[in-house]
Amino acid sequence: MKELVLICGTKETKKALTTQLNDILGNSIHIWSYSIEEGLPHQFENQLVVLSSYLIEEDVEGRISSSCDVIVAKRTVNYEYIDQLFFLPLGTKALYVNDFPASTTDAIHTLMKLGIDHIEYYPYFPNASIEITFDVAITPGELAFVPPSIPHVIDIGVRLIDISTIYQILQQLNLVNELDQDVSEKYIKKIIELGQNIAEFNKQTDHLNNHLKKVVNGVNNGILAFNRDGKITVFNDGLQKMTATPSAYALQKSIHTVFKNSSLIDFLLKQKESNDAYFTLDDIDVVVHRFLLESDQTVVATFKSVKDTIAIENAARKELIKKGYIAKYHFSDIIGDSSIISGTKQTAAKLARTNLAVLIQGESGTGKELFASAIHNESARKHGPFLAVNFSALPEDLLESELFGYEEGAFTGAKKGGKQGIFEQGHGGTIFLDEIGDSSPKLQARLLRVLQEKEVRRVGGTKNIPIDVRIIAATNCDLQSMITEGTFRRDLYHRLKVLYLELPPLRKRTGDLPILMERFIQESEQPDVYIQPQVIEALSHYPWYGNVRELKNTVEYMLAVCDENEVTTDDLPSNSFFELNDYQKDQNQSDSSLEEFGMDELILLSGIYALTRQGVTPSRKRLVEFTEASHTPLSEQQVRYRLEMLEEKGLVMKQKGRGGTKLTQKGYVAAEKLELALS
């Protein structure tokens, strides 16, 4: 059996090209494959050597004897995955990501030459800059180099050896007559398979289009869509009934041809934002809602009969009155994919399946109401009412009447006929008692009775009213300490804490910062703002005692002060912006002097602060490099010893693994004072 040597730059390229050559030539040729990344084992003598690219010629210089025949492979796109590019819209701006500038340019040139030119390619490689925002990145297997800010990544696989190089190999090994037909058949087979895949996709697309057409026509409301030129692309059966215009006639016509109401045409064409307006079409009063699909510059408008809308709203209002209130949130609304928040959601979902009381413990801003609402919506009571009351927001007398209701004449200002309390309104559903730790002893006694007897008595009433409610209580207080202090009833605590859910503070799930911040940005008035990774890294070092609520405030602050739709480390708020816990407030007041620290400690403190603000992990190696620029450079051993001293003084926390060193809140205060003193 004849042999050849394949030499590639990376092990991934070696794997892909070896598989390709084995598929085509494997039965006739033995292939020895190597990668420069893994190291070349020896000097090559009297062999046919195939280099994956001209870019590695310098790397193999001196390892290939003059007795070898060398072929530098020409590379082309990977036909296994290239069909993904065909479905990108015309004019899509895409970042093409590869490992080196030259290979990036070569790959883009190949795609353009092959006619895949409906995409605007922008070359990107390590250390290159990005000047505009991209939604799509294309890469030939170099996923590690794709910027994390790009949401849609298409991996078209490692570029393969093209047919001309395959035939060059056959000629060099005198196998053209023996294998040329076989090789041609295999390439044609791949082309046929690609065509079959596209045909199948088109078949599925046609089926989906027909299905969507049936759905759109099955809606009672009228649905209209037209492009930037005013040409109608969707005109459903509902709109046909309202306008007495056949949809077959309206499609592909200008809206000026189909509609004669000039006010309606002006509304459809000239409004830039989503809006609603009232019109009359052939004696039918309609409410038209218009919005723009920016991705393909299509305007969509829905036409709703005013008569039908009023009937639906009346039915919905009656249902809402019947239920009281509605739980707004589901578990899908709780943002985060870290293991700790995912585990918490899984536990909460399990608790939701029961009918037992739940006590949710968590710091302020951790999302206690979100979890309570989600538990209700996941429970068997999800079709029942969900009512919430906050014990810290209302005075005791008002809380009592809100919770238990009152009879007519119970007190001055009581409504005629009395009023149902939350427990009565929540019959068959869930009651959320927020900040239960702020309840008074009197209310605690009445709550205990309701939970024990499953019945309620209105203020000023004489009869007991049976109720069926599930209780979810929440607090950020240490109820056990309050029990010891005598400010919270032990028996009520155990009635509430049948099931228990502890919500993690944000500082224990800082991996969720990017997805949380992205959500807040999308919900803001500046959805196109980009946050530099260094900012996220810097924020991951904060303790977040205000949790998600504090993070949202921080994002809103940075959006307000940033320039040119990009948040940088310069936009980070000062340390005084962030919330402290009580212990840190005391520490900051009592330990505020810099005189107790040595010069080496101050240099390290300054270095940790500077690196953190840059979004760089303050490892010992980086701190050594930082001190080299000062008058007192430190060795790694000296840095380690002084970090231990700073940790004993409560200024830093050493993280496991590659987490580096983080400043405590006290350390931040000291570092900012040091920076101010040096400025």
Note the beta-strand portion. 15-25%
Helix content: 40-55%
Name the average pLDDT.
84
Number of β-strand runs: 26
Low-confidence stretches: 582-592
Radius of gyration: 34 Å
Under CATH, the topology of the largest domain is which? Rossmann fold
N- to C-terminal separation?
75 Å
Describe the biggest sheet? 5 strands, antiparallel
Widest sheet: strand ordering: 12-11-15-14-13
Which class best fits the helix and strand makeup?
A: alpha/beta
Summarize this, please?
The protein is built from 24 helices and 26 strands. With about 675 residues, the chain is α/β, with parallel strands linked by helices.
Please characterize this protein's 3D structure:
- The chain has 24 helices and 26 strands.
- By secondary structure, it is α/β, with parallel strands linked by helices.
- The protein has six domains: 103 residues, 3-Layer(aba) Sandwich (Rossmann fold), CATH 3.40.50; 76 residues, Rossmann fold; 89 residues, PAS domain (Beta-Lactamase, 2-Layer Sandwich), CATH 3.30.450.20; 172 residues, P-loop containing nucleotide triphosphate hydrolases (Rossmann fold), CATH 3.40.50.300; 72 residues, Helicase, Ruva Protein, domain 3 (Orthogonal Bundle), CATH 1.10.8.60; 97 residues, Winged helix-like DNA-binding domain superfamily/Winged helix DNA-binding domain (Arc Repressor Mutant, subunit A, Orthogonal Bundle).
- The strands form eight sheets. The protein has a five-stranded antiparallel beta sheet. Strands 17-18-21-16-22 form a five-stranded parallel beta sheet, with helices on both faces. The chain has a four-stranded parallel beta sheet with strand order 2-1-3-4, covered by helices on one side.
- α3 runs antiparallel to α4, α17 crosses α19 and α21 crosses α24.
- The radius of gyration is 34 Å and the shape is globular.
- About 2% of the residues have low confidence.
